Amino acid sequence: MFFSGGRWEGDGYGVSVATASHPLGPWTHEPRVAADVLSTELTGLLGPGHNSVLRLDDGVDLIAFHAWDAVGGKRQMFIQPLSWESGLPKVVLPVPGSVATPGTGWRA
Fold first, then answer.
1. pLDDT digits 0-9 by tens, 73-93
2. b vs e for 16-42, b when ≥16 Cβ sit within 10 Å of the residue's Cβ?
3. Which of 15, 21, 32, 54 has the fewest Cβ atoms within 10 Å of its own Cβ atom?
4. What is the pTM of this model?
5. Who's near 73: CB < 8 A, 6+ residues apart?
């Protein structure tokens, strides 16, 4: 289960995942300082969160989410590929240190 947490206004907001062997739980999550799927620390984007995951017909998984623009004036939507490592989701980042501006690889 994907969930967002923290203060959406800043870099403390992000997306984590909890796992369970049954849809009704019990759910487990390893608390961390930063969110483990999407965070400012992982992406360079300010306050990424409020996500939705989808699988395309060709089997590619994507995650759609919001993050603040560079000046914190508005939240923009982003779409990135999602990979799976040991059963846990990982956002496929364009380039380490990329920011959400035209030409960097982020899909805004």
1. 888 888 888 999 888 888 887
2. bbeeeeeeeeeeeeeeeeebbbbbbeb
3. 21
4. 0.78
5. none
